[in-house]
Amino acid sequence: MFFVLAVTAGFFAYLNVSILGSSFDLKKTISDLVTPQVNEIVESQLSTPQTGDLGGMVDKNEIQRTVNATVKQTLDRIFATLDLYKSLIPYFMALLAFGYVQFISVLVGLLYTVSIDFMFYLFRKFKLLTITTKQVVKEIISF
User: Fold this and answer.
1) Once rounded to an integer, what is the mean pLDDT over residues 9-33?
2) pTM over 0.70
3) What's the CA gap between 106 and 111, in Å, rounded?
4) Fewer CB atoms inside 10 A, N or C side of the chain?
5) What is the mean pLDDT of the chain?
């Protein structure tokens, strides 16, 4: 049952990425996430006491522009490399969804295996489950 669910999840992940893949701009998304973080780090480093001694010798705006240009060049190089593998993203997402559902099914199986004996013990202890044995007469039919 979980295998069918995992295959279905992988299939829908593949379809979703295939359909929306052309409208999703990974470069812009990562640039929007990385640039503010880098700017914050540069700003905190420029305001430390060690750089405060430089006073007017350092143009903070020029440093910020240089760092932003360096980050942009680095991201462009990374994305140029990743563009070679862009066609594989739907397959990777489908495999990831399949693997995630399989992992969840393994966890459910382990939880069941660990807890079922304890549940039977509790059911017998509180008299919700009774086990009786009976003598049975066996008939054998043969030709």
Assistant:
1) 69
2) no
3) 9
4) C
5) 79
